[in-house]
Amino acid sequence: MDTFLNILVAGLLLGGIYSLVSIGLNLVFGVLRVVNFAHGAVVMVALYVTYFFYAVFGLDPYIAVVLVVPIMFVFGMGIYWFILRPLQDEPMMQTFATFGLLIVLQNTVLAITRGEPHSMNTELSRLVFSIGPLNVSAVRALSLVVATIIAGGLAAALRYTLTGKAIRGLIQDRPVGVLMGINVRQMYTLCVGMSAALAGVAAALLAPIYSLSPGLGDDFILPAFAVVVLGGLGSTMGAYFGGLLVGIIEALAGFYIDPTLKQAIWFLVFIAVLILRPSGLMGRLGAEEVGLRGNA
Amino acid sequence: MFAKRLLMASVLALSVLGSTAIHAQDKLKIGIINPFSGSLALYGDQLARGYEIAAEEQNAHGGVLGKQIELIRGDAGTPQQAIAAVQRLQDAGVSAFIGTYISAVSNAASDAAAQYDKIYWDTNALAQDLTDRGLPNFIRSGPSAGLFGEVATKAVVELVAPALAKSPKQIRVWIEHEDSIYGTSIADRERQLLTQAGVQVVGVGSHAARAIDLTDSVLRAKGATPDVWLSTSYQPDGTLLLRTMRDQGFKPPAIVMIGAGDSPDALQALGADGLSGLLIVTYPAAEQNQAYGPGGHEFLETYRKKYGRDPLVPHPLTAYVGAKMLFETIAAAGGTGPAAVRAAAAKLNHPVGTYANGFGAKFDANFQNTLALPTVVQWQSGKLLTVYPVQASLPGTKITDLPRK
User: Fold this and answer.
1) Less Cβ around it within 10 Å: N or C end of chain B?
2) Are residues B42 and A115, on separate chains, in Cβ contact within 8 Å?
3) For residues B189 and B128, is the Cβ–Cβ distance under 8 A?
4) What domains does chain B contain, in order, with CATH numbers?
5) Which residues of chain A are modeled with pLDDT < 70?
C-alpha cells in the first residue's frame, strides 16, 4: 500500500508538470485554432531565459519568474504579430509556420549555447518532504499547486471578466464576435502572449528539475498534445485534469507494468477516450469538429 | 582578334581548372558523420573537435600519403539523416568516413558508405552489433558495449565488493539502462558477466532516454534494495535519475554509471556532495597518468588553446586517438580502399598505453579494437579522478566514500 501511495503521488506530481505545460498550449489551440508545434520550444526558450538570470545575476528561478513572465509575454505577442497574423487566412500554413518556428528556436539556442546542458541547483530543488512512506519533492509539489491555481484562475477569468467573455465569444463564433465589436487582433495577441507567459511560469518551476538542452521542449510537446486532446480541445480545466490523468496512468503503468511501455499505455487510454468521447473528457460535444468550443 | 582573346581565355580557364584539380588531388577528404544540429549536437561537436586536432597535427607532419587532410562535416542525428549525409559527402568527394557516438547513426551511415565502397571508421559508438554484423567496410577503434560491460563488471567485482567488505557472491546489483540498442547491449553484457562472476543480479530495468519522469524506474530499483545500482544512460536521463534517486531517498551503497554522471552539468545539478563516491565507467580522461596515456596532457593543452576551454566530456580524446589511428592505418595501407585499410588494421599490434588515452591497437576478426579499454573514474571532492585501471591512476589516488554516505 505504501508503494502504491508513493507511486500515486509521483504520478500526481508528474501530472502537475504536464498540466502546467499544456494549459498554455490549449489556450492557443482553443482560441486561434492553431496547433502550436512551437510551444515546447517556447518553454525551452523560457528555461534558457530563466537560466540567464540565474547564471548572470544569481537570481533564483522562483524570483526570476517575475522578469521571465513579462519577457515571454512580449515574445508571445511577437510570435502572433510576425508569424501567425500574416497567415491568419491560412490556418494550415499557420500550423506549418509554428513547426518552422520550432526548428528556428531550437537551432538558434543550439548555436548560442552549442548544446551544452545546464542545470540549476537551488536550496528548494534539494528540499524533500517525507510524510510517512511518501517522499514529496518540494519543486514538484509547487508545480502542482501553481498548475492548480493557474487552471482555476484562468477558467474563472475566462468566465467572469469582460476580456474573458470576449475570448470565449471568439472561441464560440468568431464572425458573430466580430459583429459584436470584439477586437480580434487584440484578443489573439493577448492569448498568444498569455500562452508564452504561461510557458515562462512553467519554465521557472521546471528549471530546478531538468537539465536544460535545446531539445528539451520536444520531450514535453507529445504528452502536451495528448493532454490537450484528452482533456478537451479548448478547455482549460480539461487540460488540467487531462494532465493529472496522464501523469497518474504513466506512473502506475511504469511501475507496475514496464517503464518502457508507459507512454504506449497512456496512448491506448487516449485512443479509447477519443473513440468513446471524441470531444475529450471536458470538451463540449462537437468541439472536435468546429474546433474548440471549450467550456473554459 | 576575337579568336585570339577566346584562345587566351580558354587557356586561362583550363589552367585555373587544372590547378584546382591538382589542388583537389593534394587533399585527402574525410567525411565526419555526427549530429551537428538538434538536441544531440553537443557530443557531435565535441567529437569533431577531437578529429580536427588530430588532422591538424597530421597535416603539420606532411599529412597522409603526401596529401593534406580535409575534414568535411556531415550532419546526422538520425539514421535517415545519416544516409543523406553520406550521400552528400560522397558527392563532395570524400575518400573515407569517420564518426560518431550514436550507434543507430553509425549503423545506417556505415551501411550507406559500404554501397560506395568507402571505409567507415568508428571511434565512439558502442553497440555490439556494429562489429558483429560483419560489414566489409567497418572498423571500430574505440570500445564496444561489450568492453564497457566488461569494465563495469570489473568495477563491481574488483572495486566495489572489497570497498563494501563483501564477496562478489554477496553483492546485489540492479541493472538500469536506457532502452535503445546502446543501453540494451551494455546491460545484456553486464548481466551475463556479473552472473558468471557469481554476483546477484536482483533486477533489470529499462527506461526511455527522453522520459519526462523516472520515478517509476527509481522506485522499482529501490524496492529491490541493491548494494550496487549500475546504470547505462545518456547525460539528461542519467542526471534526472540521480535527482530522482535523491528525491526518493534511494541511497544504494554504490552507484556505477555508464554514459552519464561525468559532465559539468551533473556537477551543477547535484553538487559535489551529491556526486561524491559515484563511479563512472567512461572514455579515458586526458588528466590520467601520462605513463599510461602518453600525450594526453598535450592534447588537453592543444584543445584549450584552440577552443578556449576544457572539453565538456572525455569523448574528444577518444575521437582524437581514433582519428590518429585511422591516419596511421591509411598510411600503412597506401590508400583508402576498405580491403587495404582493413588489411593494414589487422596488422596493427600496439600494446595498451600506446596512444594518448591509453588505448592499444589490436583488432579482432570483426575489426573491433580489443585494446580500447574504458576507464573508471570517481567523483572525489568535486573532481573526477581515474581509479581503474591502476596504471591509469595518478599516484596516491584511491577509492573513497564507499559505501556512499
Assistant:
1) N
2) yes
3) yes
4) 21-143+296-347 (3.40.50.2300), 146-282+375-392 (3.40.50.2300)
5) 284-296
